Amino acid sequence: MTAYTATVTVRLKHGVLDPEAETTQRALERLGFELADLRSADRFEIDLEADSTGDAEDRVDEMAERLLANPTIHDYDVEIAER
Amino acid sequence: MTVAIIRFGGSNCDRDAERALEHLDIDAEIVWHEDEDGLPAETSGILLPGGFSYGDYLRAGAMAAHSPIMDEVREAAADGVPVLGVCNGAQVGCESGLTEGAFTTNESARFQCEHVYLRVERDDTPWTAAYEDGEVIEVPIAHGEGRYEIDDDRLAELEDEGRVLFRYCDENGAVDDPSVNPNGSKHNVAGVLGETETVAVLMPHPERATLPDVGGVDGQGILEGFAR
């Protein structure tokens, strides 16, 4: 078994309205910053032991599919690194 | 015969729902979601109440949707037991797969607590048999994450299948003016049916429009679905 850290990034699908990001962008602009756009995402870091990178990825993928992301509105990606 | 009102940690409309059902002479019982006995044997209906289950961690309804009792709720729903999700219960319903789509952050990015008008899209379900097709009812909303979101093509299919139950509208039933859509829901959707007509979720609160002492009673007909 090898120790891995999986990083799951969950973001809204393209085209899904993100009112919190829009509000955050407006707040930055009120502070005087210039920016073209702002998107927000959730990032989860999961430490786990697995037989291989592929095994770790499969398990984390299922975690994302079943709970961390809502496939109706979210896309997600998984990165695996040895820890 | 009793309606099981599932209380999760953070539910806060469970007692309102119990009082509203009692007012309608519908027997109801609050069931703690971790109760070892699970749903009462005589469960004839299930209400998923409003509130902030698990503090809306991750996404509103996401944690409660994976609470063990939800397996029982899904089985009961598949067996034809009527299930109604209200507000946070609607979010739980969508997160648990009882209904399709997602209720997410309001377009305003604010919590909104106000009275809204709803157009009844069909009157041949247990939840809407008390109304006429196209009837306009007034029911309160109180949510920060009520914007109905779903893939456009899938929404078109659900509409074709008659699974949109309520839409936000003006007092005459018109839906075109964006100002009548309080949270930016796609196609003004306020409530949808599951795979069967006995499963429904909606963001507005019928239990807050049932007792005459607290305002309107337009929500009574929805809760009466448990007695049909």
How are the secondary structure elements laid out?
The complex is a heterodimer of chains A (83) and B (228).
Chain A: E1 2-12, H1 19-30, E2 41-50, H2 53-68, E3 74-82
Antiparallel strand pairs in A: 1-2, 1-3
Chain B: E1 2-7, H1 14-23, E2 28-32, E3 43-48, H2 69-78, E4 83-86, H3 88-95, E5 102-104, E6 112-120, E7 136-143, E8 147-149, H4 152-160, E9 164-169, E10 189-193, E11 199-202, H5 220-223
Parallel strand pairs in B: 1-2, 1-3, 3-4, 4-11
Antiparallel strand pairs in B: 5-8, 6-7, 6-9, 9-10, 10-11
Describe this structure in words.
The complex is a heterodimer of chains A (83) and B (228). Chain A has helices at 19-30, 53-68, and strands at 2-12, 41-50, 74-82. Chain A has 83 residues and is α+β, with helices and mostly antiparallel strands. Chain A is elongated, with a radius of gyration of 16 Å. Chain B is of the alpha/beta class and 228 residues long. Chain B has helices at 14-23, 69-78, 88-95, 152-160, 220-223, and strands at residues 2-7, 28-32, 43-48, 83-86, 102-104, 112-120, 136-143, 147-149, 164-169, 189-193, 199-202. Chain B contains 5 helices and 11 strands; from the N terminus they run βαββαβαββββαβββα. The chains are: A alpha+beta (83), B alpha/beta (228). Chain A binds chain B through residues 16-20, 22-23, 67-68, 70, 72-73, and chain B through 58-59, 62, 66, 94-95, 100-102, 104-109, 147, 149-151, 184. Chain A: It holds the Pfam family PurS. Chain A: Pathway: Purine metabolism; IMP biosynthesis via de novo pathway; 5-amino-1-(5-phospho-D-ribosyl)imidazole from N(2)-formyl-N(1)-(5-phospho-D-ribosyl)glycinamide: step 1/2. Chain A: It comes from Natronoglomus mannanivorans. Chain A: It is found in: Cytoplasm.
